[in-house]
Amino acid sequence: MKIELLQEEHYSAVAEIYAQGIATGIATFETECPSWESWNNAHLAFGRLGLWEDRQLMGWAALSPVSDRCVYNGVAEVSVYVGTQFRGKGIGKILLQELIANSEMHNIWTLQSAIMQPNTASIQLHLKCGFREIGYRERVGHLNGKWFDNVLMERRSSVVGI
Q: Measuring CA to CA, how many Å separate 31 from each of 18, 21, 26, 142, 148?
């Protein structure tokens, strides 16, 4: 297994895993994969990691800025997606731990995540990687005729911004 920074040539594999997440109905409020241009513009260039084995992308993790305001330059939102056939094998944990280390190398002091409440696997993953639940947003999103709460999670660096 190896972790690589994701580039445009990897996007078809990224989008395939993203589509698998969309299909679960509990990974995102998105209903279709964005174009490379939209995905590229929404994520920090240094914070897009893919975990590969034998040229197959098993999962990816990425950071998005939470605001354009300079005061929030050290805060980023986390996305972690694992391919269907690789779920439950520790791939998400490897990716999230590497993303945390990568974020700290780039002066990110706070990572946050908003996870759909039924996505207990993602909530547990974040807890195992040092995130804490800081609250929830009730009925914040509507998908497929159903309202969902988002669990808000945060991880403060013990290295950066202290």
A: 10, 10, 11, 11, 15
> E strands of the chain, at which residues?
2-5, 48-53, 56-65, 75-82, 110-116, 132-143, 146-156
Give the pairing of strands 110-116 and 75-82. parallel
For residues 51-67, average pLDDT: 96
For residue 107, how many C-alpha atoms fall within 13 Å in the half-sphere facing its CB? Answer: 5
Amino acid at 111: L
Question: What secondary structure, in 3-state letters, does 99-130 show?
Answer: HHHHHHHCCCCEEEEEEECCCHHHHHHHHHCC
Distance of alpha carbon 17 from alpha carbon 38, whole angstroms = 16
This prediction has a pTM of 0.94
**Domains of the chain, residue spans:** 2-156
Structure tokens at 16: 């395939």
Q: What's the pLDDT tens digit per position in 119-157?
A: 999 999 999 999 999 999 999 999 999 999 999 999 999
The CATH architecture assigned to 2-156 reads: 3-Layer(aba) Sandwich (3.40)
Tell me the angle at which helices 120-128 and 91-105 cross, rounded to the nearest 10 degrees.
50
